[in-house]
Amino acid sequence: MSEYQYYEFRAVDRPLTSQELGRLRTLSTRARISSTSFVNVYNYGDFRVDPDRLVEKYFDAFVYVANWGSHYLTLRLPKDVFAPSELAPFCDGESFRAWSKAGYTILSFRADELENDYGDSGEGWMDALLPVRAELLRAGSRALYLGWLLALQHGAVDDDQPEPPLPPGLSSLSSPLRSLSEFLGIDEDLIESAAELSPNLDVPALSREKLSNWIAALPEPEKNVLLLELATGEKPNAIGQLMRRFDRECVGPAAGEPRARRTAGELLAAADRLTKEKALREEQRLQAERQAEEQEKAAERAKYLDSLVEREAGVWERLDPLIATKRPDDYDRAVSSLVDLRDLAARKGCTAVFQERLRNLRARHAAKSSLLGKLNQAGLVSTSSKAESQTA
In this structure, are residues 117 and 111 in contact, taking their beta carbons and an 8 Å threshold? Predict the structure, then answer.
């Protein structure tokens, strides 16, 4: 299987200008380029431009998929969405990074040790992951926490380091955040362990009347600035900023985090315990299924043997004619019938009678080594013929 790499960039807040499109076309003659996207696929070779630089200059999102197990997501946000001090506790190592450039904050999620999936072309991930950016624009920190868990999973966090601020709603991830977790291969048990202390995300229904009254009360100059920013497109995040302010002033803060933060080592240990508990429950479930299946088979076997009682004599009578054909298939049928007769004898408490008849049958056909081998393999060895079986 040849190497495969998928690059997709997306512009969200504004379309690319004709000059920008021209510069992008000089980077690749094979890419699919539009005013909002840049898509390139490589089966051999590589894209010789740093994707981070393209995000810094042109795009709001970047998705990368390589069939050797690398998945990257990069998101560009307006710089004022998160203060550097808010991002710092979540960033560790190369798995999750944040930096500022030209009025933007860039967030980078990187997973490099995923199981190879040669059926994943990369297409479709951008549409599934892009809504993560919308949540971040509302200053939602669940994606940031998932980034930290990714770094923790990859061994980039010291065991004694405390976790970052725990966001509410970690136990009820949105569909985009579930896609993010899947895309990055974040351990589900690690997320579940981290979410144990995460308060519920209680999102009250947005009251149009409440929002309307709040906007009406804003100072006139602020509203004029907001309308100007929207009309000129100079601040695409103006609506997001407005709604975050509304959340702070009218909706109120989310439930507080626990008093004592857990350490990275404690979270890893909790995830390990959870994984083992799930494995134990799964093994117990499978064992119960196996026992139920065995009991069902035993009941069916008992029912069949009971039905064989009236036909027992006829089954014995058909054995010698079957064996006389010397055909392997008939030998198999004879052996199968003998197994049934043996089990029936045990059920009736007359194993000694069966053993006597088996000895006689083996004696009559002692020259048929193939038959004796099949009998031995089926455990149809009479007490007096064990030595014979070992010799054969």
Answer: no
